[in-house]
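Moderator note: this is an archived Q&A kept for reference. The question asked for a predicted structure of one protein chain; the sequence and the answer are reproduced below.
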Amino acid sequence: MPRTTDATARLVGELARRGLTIAVAESLTGGALTAELIRIPGASVVVNGGVVAYQSALKHTLLGVDAALLEEHGPVHPRVAVQMAEGVRTRLAVDGRPADIGVATTGVAGPDGQGGQEPGTVFLGLARGAETSVIPLRLQGDRAGIRAASVAAAVEAVWQLLARDRVE
């Protein structure tokens, strides 16, 4: 997997500078996003933890994703990504304090499609307080490339979330 270490180091540094924490919920990235974050020295100050919920049932039981939503649309859906991000933010609270930011990855890495979704269909969910957003991606490449691109896109998405604070 290509490393996004420079961007990740900047992100971890900025989270630390602001005193913010992050929690990660992963499906298609299988722990790679959390691993990318904790690769950076000092990450323990900002990373509360990560949950790999590869099976849909775990998205519901561990992260609180609505069971009816999963039943109707499957795990690769924008609202699933958002609910995963919201759920991990609150469920990986430390000393009763939710993470400041929740980020989630769900999608199809391939080689085959899933639930009517083509390989490369990815949704990134972000939650910060009451603010939520989803970033849809259409990625190209093989399984490893799609997973690596999803990790890089998630790091960039959190960076952009923080950048909005400086503009507004």
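Archived answer notes: The beta strands are 22-26, 47-52, 101-107, 121-128, 131-138.
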